[in-house]
Amino acid sequence: MKIRSTRSQLTRDLIPYWRLSAFYFFYFAVLGVLVPYWGLYLKSLGFSPESIGLLMAIPLATKIIAPNIWGWLADSVSRSKSLLPLASALALAIFCSLFWTVDFAWLALAMIGFSFFWNATLPNMEATTLNFLGDRWDRYGVVRLWGSVGFIALVWSMGWVIDAFGAATVLPAICACLGGMWLSVVSVPERAPPPVRQETTGGHPALQPQVIAFLVCCMLMQASHAPFYAFFTLYLEGYGYQNSLIGGLWALGVLAEILVFLNMHRMFGRWRLVTLLHFSFAVAVLRWVLVASFPQFLVVILFSQLLHAVTFGVYHASAIQLIHRFFRARHQHRGQALYSSMSFGIGGALGSLYSGYLWVHSGPNSIFVVAAFAALLATTITWLYVRPAVHETTPAES
User: Fold this and answer.
1) Using CA atoms in the order 109, 114, 115, 121, what is the torsion angle rounded to 10 degrees?
2) Where are the domains of the chain?
3) What is the pLDDT of residues 286-296, one digit of tens each?
4) How do residues 350-393 score in pLDDT, each as one tens digit?
5) Can you tell me the distance from the alpha carbon of 230 to that of 228, in angstroms, rounded to the nearest whole number?
6) Into which CATH architecture does domain 2-191+205-386 fall?
7) pTM over 0.70
């Protein structure tokens, strides 16, 4: 009833709730196959853990450059939304080429091309969604939660499908989701950005010390999550977990995340964004220590997956709002792109690379020990440099 009421309110405010939500559903449905099962598909082709780590790092590495190029284009052209159908269509076409090859070099080239265009879509759609929401920014979670629904639908179902029909089903599943994403992008209307506000004289937002510290913390947070995204399925397989159970564990984490998104407007009204961000970093330390130390105990893994509500749900919702506040008016798309490239791009790529190397040379558990250290470093930097410098009010205070 709560989500139905909020949805009705947003629809009355002329916000295309279902069309925006459909994009998030299909975009994260792609991730629901790509993140937990792409490694299994590559393993079925006979690739080594180091090669898998490299191929898993490519979509993350392209986030370093691609979102910034597309963000600059979106902020520079008058009809920025028109770029999204083109990027979505090209991502679909390039990924479909993987049906005809298992060659490592072509896989790497195709993943570079696919992810260059695919990575363009989310930062620009985030800016579009926040522009539609306007003063209702605290309701971002009820739109974004459909991304979690899409992720959970695919991660849960694909566990059973792969057990029954094999890892080759990963390719058609991703292509179908990419097709749905393209259709949803085409249906979203153009939305003009809000009027340009008087900007401060402090220079470009990205040059402010607190913004730099914030982006470094986001990079460290994603570097700590990358071993989870790239190797969690293989990690649990090594301890005897079945793919259907692993899919259920992935789904549990996203269910917890959905509950957070449903209630984020209450959290935003009670706590400041930087406080929520700092809390999510501290919880990530606990989560990775548990995964590294007690993987053989199902109850511990269940609890660690529930913590995904904080380490992703609370973290991402808070970070995306802080970026929207740091980067105003003509910097909107580039701000979202910079957040994406620094966190999911540099952080994610570094995390995938170090986890692939450590998996071979130091053992699977070591990748989560390093992940905990990265989250601890983010916690420290936030406490020392971000928290004292960021001054904000909650919606209730403003």
Assistant:
1) 160
2) 2-191+205-386
3) 999 999 999 99
4) 888 888 889 988 999 999 999 999 999 999 999 988 877 665 54
5) 6
6) Up-down Bundle (1.20)
7) yes
**If phi over 0 gives left and psi between -120 and 50 gives alpha, with beta otherwise, what is residue 203?**
left
Task: Quickly tell me which residue has 């759609």 as its tokens.
Answer: 125
The CA-atom distances, in angstroms, between 150 and each of 59, 61, 115, 284, 376 are 19, 24, 19, 24, 30
How far is Cα 300 from Cα 59, in angstroms, rounded to an integer? 30
Cα–Cα distance list, 109 to 47, 105, 152, 352 (Å): 16, 6, 29, 18
